[in-house]
Structure formats: C-alpha cells, structure tokens
C-alpha cells in the first residue's frame, strides 16, 4: 500500500477525493467534535457533502448514548442529522443479540455493564436486561454481597449474556456480578473496546479500559460489536445498502476507524488529525501496525477547501 | 524437573519434607483460610511447625490490609502470629517507594488506587500520598471533573507515583485521576497483580483486574511489588535473614506463590489444593506454563499427618 495522500490545502486532491465516493461513514468523537467542543466548519462540511448528494452515516463506538441521545448531541451542536443516519455500538450490540445471537428465551437476559444508551437500544430490540443504570447496583459492595454472588442467590438465573461498554458508574459490585455471570458461562459481548475516550482535548479511560477487569478476571475476551468489528460493518451495510467500493470511512483512530474501513474493503479511508492518532503513527514506518489510511487531512473542515 | 511429590496421608514423606526446611513462607488466602472461613486444623499445623522450631512468615498479596489489620484477622480466626511475621504487598510497596525508588521530595507523592492497608503502610514509611480512601473521590464523575483533570487543575503537581492495588471502592473518577497522572509520566507501581481474589469459596475480581483499566488506557504495565515479583522476595529476605535453600514457599497459586518460590531459588515449594489451582494444573502437561511445585497436598492441615 502506498503512502497516504495529504488533502489539506490541496484543492485538486480534495475534488478528486470527493468524486470517488457516494457514501461517507463518519466517526464522531475526534472527527466532528471533542467532548462538547465542536470543531470549526463541521456543519458546513457536512452540508457541502449533502449538497453533492453524498450519503452520510455516523458510526460511533460511544455506547453511553442511544441513537436518539446522539441526535440530541448533534442538534445541540448545530449539526442537522436524522436518528436513522446514526449507527452506534450500543445499537449494533442490540441488533446482534436480538437478530443474530438469538438465545432461546428465557435464558436470553442481558446483564449490562454500561450506561442508558445500551439500555435504550436493548429495549428498542425487545431484549430483556438487568444491571446498567439500576440504582440498586450503584453502591459499595457489602460482605453479604460476596456470599450472595458466590452462592448464586444474587444472580439472575436467566442471564445468558454479559454486555459491557463504557460505564461512568462502574464499581466493584457491578464487576463482581458481571464476573459471576461470566464464570457461570454467560456469553461475553462488548459494545466496543476503545482503550481511551477523547474528552476535553485529552484522553480518559474508554470502554475497553472499563471492560478490562472482566477480561483480566475471566481470562476471556469479549466479542466486540463496535469498530473495527466487521459485525458492525455488516450491520451498517445491511441497513444502508451502500456500494463498499464507493464508500469512505473517515476517522481519527487507526486501530478502530481506519482498520474498520480497510478490513471492510471500503473504497477508501480518511484519517483526520483532530483526535487520537498523529501522522507520525501512519507515515513511513508509522506505529508498526501497518494500518495506513488512503488519505489524511489535518481536520474534517479542510475538505471545504 | 520431576513430578511434584504428594504428601497427604504419606507420613514418611511428610516427615522428610518437614526436616528439609527451617523457614516456611505462607500465602494466606486459599492456604490458611478462604475469606472469613478458616480451614480445619490451620492453627494446629502452625503450632506443630513452631514446636519444631520453624520460622514462619506470612507473605500475602492482599493489599487491602496493613500488617496490623492482618494480625487482627489472624487473631479473630484464632491463629497466633506477631505483626512482624506478616509481610504484605502494601508493606512491600511502601518499603520499595521509601527505601529503593526514593524520588526526590516534593515530587515523591503517591496517588493511591486502593484501600486503607496501603495508606497505613505508606504512612509507616513516611511516604506522602493522596487518593486511597479519600471520601472526596468516592463519588460520580461530573462534567467539570473532565475539564479539571484535562487541564491539570484537579491533579496534584507533586504526584510522581501511581500505586494501584485492590480497591473495593474503585470508580471512574479515581481511574481518571490515576490515568491523568500516568499520562503526565508518573511511575506506575502495583502492590500485586493477582487477577482474582478468593472469597466465599469462589473467585472475585482481584487487584490485577482493578488495575487493568489503567494498564489498558495507558498501554503501560506496572512494576508489581507482590508475589511473584522478586523485589518482594528480596525485601522479605532482607528482613528475615533466612537461608533460601532451607526455605519452603507454601501457596495455592502456581503463577504467584509457586513461581515466587521457584524464581527465588528456595529449597522447595508446596502447593495446597484448597485455593485457586487444582492438581491437573501442574501434574503431567499441566496448564502449559511449566510451573510445578516440588510438593503438593490437598490442604495445609495434612502436614499434621
């Protein structure tokens, strides 16, 4: 694979790039915004793409938000989207559980380590669940919890799946429950495994870090339903019916976004430098992983020329 | 290395075993007790060893308790020990920070992810610290925390070390602080890295699992001051002045206790089957790690014959 082509400030290269694709898949955090800070000219860039008839899909690994929550975030930041253009890892996981895994009821209940975004998407797919934002689990572990988890009396006999994602309310009690289910043989799923979360212009522990205690304790790795898992690409394609060769993935992370596009055999990938990875990570020797985007730009807004 | 010798019920083998050693290093959880349940004949076995003039040292990776806390646990379970016979990973870490690492003040402050046992041992070694059981960190993360951690205003400029261990009160806010310090270049230490904690006859997430988010987020592994780290063996030997060739490590975990004894070139190791590992893990092909004890018994009390 050749070296990535740099687009910022190169109008002919930008026009050639835009002409190659009908569909753009966007990562959000690190591409459109960082936390609650929207990057300059984001809305204008998306408007330009729409005006050229491009299909836009916002593919996010953030599992704390449902698609409806995500739409609210777009609205608040002044970027017009529809709920159907948003495809999150929580939704991806719910679709996988309901339509692909299809465990026989009643043993198909999910124990959630995560926030309300996961719960909303499971509810939308009629998947029964416990855990999540349940207030009764937002407390310190007590001596009797150890006993009750150990003898199984605190565990729901119908739980057959542990679904983990980013949980800002993670605690030992929830981890102990989830580990109890995993030891009993529950299927281990993760919305995504991003190690870090871009927030406030820096990085915080991501979903992969919050799930790490379960991976370490159980010795098992979850099946991840977010980028770069191709289970997510298949689900996105199933819904949006795009031509992969005329589709470009735009993201800030080599090991999730760009890998997602390359392994999905999309027509192209564009790395923007407004998030996690820097150009040193993919130019020349790069970070040693060999994951290189086809194109790169300093920021998404540079596509406006 | 030959196959481990089985001692339970074999009186001549037991007597030969006892005659080979002057000092016995004991793991506690899984050997003497499981959680608050003491195994039968524990006190009598220790008494028998003392009556034969053996030196006993209780080497535990449990960092939630100080040596003084541990003595209370022995007292409560009816096993006579002195504080000086107890050597915990929290103590080991405090000794390492104060006497070996010796960062120049004032940049030698420790951010603790862990319980009061770590705090007590740091205090005993005059090591300044924050975090730990600080009530102001036992709360949900708020939007301003992200900003204040990101811009550094919530971080103590003097913290040069992150010391992580088992924390039953782990939460996202503490993990975010610890990760903030690690990103700033703090030295990453762990009391121990046991993936699981034996409690109530089963396993719960251990120190290694609670530290895992920091390992995943930072991409760095901590220097561990508990078994099987030889930093701990050196510290134990420095304090107790034993002859390694006449010393036996007794434990239930191959990857911590038995490895600790083998890598420390002790005269012998004894695996008891009352904890994590089963004999299938080390007989014949075993678990594939090649870690084999020299001796094994069903339980510690079998040494009574």
Number of strands of chain A: 16
Poorly predicted spans of chain A: none
- Give the quaternary arrangement of the chains: homodimer
Portion of residues in helices of chain A?
25-40%
Structural class of chain A, please?
A: alpha/beta
Please give the order of strands in the largest beta sheet of chain A.
Answer: 1-16-15-14-2-5-6
CATH class of the largest domain in chain A reads Alpha Beta
The major sheet of chain A is characterized as: 7 strands, parallel
- How large is the count of helical segments of chain A? 10
- Mean pLDDT score of chain A, rounded? 95
Strand content of chain A: 15-25%
Q: What is the number of domains of chain A?
A: 2
What is the succession of H and E elements of chain A? EHEEEHEHEHEHEHEHEEEHEHEHEE
EC number (chains A, B): 3.1.3.41
Enzyme class (chains A, B): hydrolase
Pfam families (chains A, B): Hydrolase_6, Hydrolase_like
Protein name (chains A, B): 4-nitrophenylphosphatase
How do the helices and strands line up, and which of them pair or pack?
The structure is a homodimer of 305-residue chains.
Chain A: E1 5-6, H1 11-19, E2 23-26, E3 33-34, E4 37-38, H2 42-51, E5 55-60, H3 67-76, E6 86-88, H4 89-101, E7 109-113, H5 116-124, E8 129-131, H6 143-150, E9 159-164, H7 172-183, E10 187-190, E11 196-199, E12 202-205, H8 207-218, E13 223-224, H9 230-240, E14 247-251, H10 254-263, E15 268-272, E16 295-297
Parallel strand pairs in A: 1-16, 2-5, 2-14, 5-6, 7-8, 7-9, 9-10, 10-13, 14-15, 15-16
Antiparallel strand pairs in A: 3-4, 11-12
């Amino acid at each position: 694979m050749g070296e990535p082509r740099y687009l910022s400030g190169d109008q002919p290269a930008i026009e050639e790039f835009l002409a190659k694709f009908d569909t753009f898949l966007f990562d959000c955090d690190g591409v459109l915004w960082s936390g609650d800070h929207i990057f300059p000219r984001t809305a204008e860039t998306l408007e330009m793409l729409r005006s050229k008839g491009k299909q836009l899909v916002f593919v996010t690994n953030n599992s704390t938000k449902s698609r409806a929550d995500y739409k609210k975030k777009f609205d608040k930041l002044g970027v017009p989207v529809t709920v159907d253009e948003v495809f999150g890892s929580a939704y991806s996981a719910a679709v996988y559980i309901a339509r692909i895994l299809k465990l026989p009821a009643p043993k198909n209940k999910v124990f959630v380590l995560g926030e309300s975004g996961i719960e909303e998407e499971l509810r939308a797919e009629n998947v029964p669940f416990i855990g999540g934002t349940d207030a009764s689990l937002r407390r310190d572990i007590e001596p009797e919890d150890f006993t009750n988890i150990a003898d199984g009396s605190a565990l729901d006999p119908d739980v057959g799946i542990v679904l983990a994602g980013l949980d800002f309310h993670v605690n030992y009690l929830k981890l102990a429950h989830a580990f109890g289910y995993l030891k009993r043989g529950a299927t281990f799923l993760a919305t995504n495994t991003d190690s870090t979360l871009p927030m406030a212009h820096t990085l915080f522990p991501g979903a992969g870090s919050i799930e790490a205690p379960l991976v370490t304790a159980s010795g098992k790795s979850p099946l991840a339903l977010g980028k770069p898992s191709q289970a997510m690409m298949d689900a996105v394609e199933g819904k949006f019916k795009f031509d992969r060769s005329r589709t470009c993935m735009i993201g800030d992370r080599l090991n999730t976004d760009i890998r997602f596009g390359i392994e999905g055999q999309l027509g192209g990938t564009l790395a923007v430098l407004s998030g996690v990875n820097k150009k040193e990570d993919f130019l020349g020797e790069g970070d040693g992983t060999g994951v290189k985007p086809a194109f790169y730009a300093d920021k998404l807004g540079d596509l406006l020329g």
